[in-house]
Structure formats: C-alpha cells, structure tokens
UniProtKB/TrEMBL annotation:
Residues 26-135 form the HIT domain. InterPro entries: Histidine_triad_CS, HIT-like, HIT-like_sf. GO terms for biological process: single strand break repair. Pfam families: DcpS_C. One of its GO terms (molecular function) is mismatched DNA binding. It comes from the Eukaryota. GO terms for cellular component: nucleolus; nucleoplasm. It comes from Catharus ustulatus. This is Aprataxin.
Amino acid sequence: MIGSPTVVHKLPNPICSLAALNCCKRQNKMKTGRRTSYFVFCKVYKDEKTVVIKDKYPKARYHWLILPWDPISSLKSVTRDHLELLEHMHAVGQKMIEQCPARESLEFRLGYHAIPSMSQLHLHVISQDFDSPALKTKKHWNSFTTDYFLNSEGND
C-alpha cells in the first residue's frame, strides 16, 4: 500500500525519469539515425517503485503517465511477478485523481495502450474532457476512447 503522495505540479527544474529518458533516446535514435533533443518531463510524484510525469502531449486537461523504475518494455513483458507493481501503479493513479483540483467536475480513466507509442510500460491517468490542443487526429481520439485503451483494474 502507498502513502499519500505529495503532488508537485510545478518544479523549478523539470527532470526526466531514467526509464523515460532512456526510452526516448532509443526512439529518437531509431527515428532519425542519431540522437536529437532529449525530452524533459515534469515530474509530479515519485516513490520507491514509480515516477509520475505529465504527458508531453496531453490529450486532456489532466494527463499523467505513471512509469515503473524497473525497465519493463510493455504489457507483453508483464508476468505474475509484476502484479504487485501494477496494483501499486493503479493506486498511485487513484491518488493523483484524489488530489486533482478538478476531480469533482471531471471523470478520469486509468489504462494502458494495447500498442504503446513508448517502449517503456506506462499507465495513463487521463481526464475525460479531452480538452487539449494536442488532441489533433482521429488516432489520438481513438487511442483513449476505443478498445485500444485497456482499463487498469485495481483492488478498489
């Protein structure tokens, strides 16, 4: 079980999670043949098992990614040994929602993409307003509103 996270929405020095940074380096190198700019994600919470960052291209007013510190490439790599970690990630997502200032007026979903765009396991916590300039295409919409988005089930 986790304690109540202290959510920090603005940090003076945004940092990258090691897993996210390494993933983005690999993806940049694969796409361009060389390393280009590094993505810098704003950390909002971390504990001994996970880090929560704001999505770089949020598809709603509130859109966080919960990444495990352990390098797990995707849902396909998850085993029974990861069950406690997945439950912890879900619980952290619930805490993020509980501490969100708009929690009373918005609905949220927690889930994974069936075919993720990032090669590091990550749980999306996303408000269902889909109010974002980054929501530009049908693909963006469908990635959160169809069976492509796999709900996270916790022991709530």
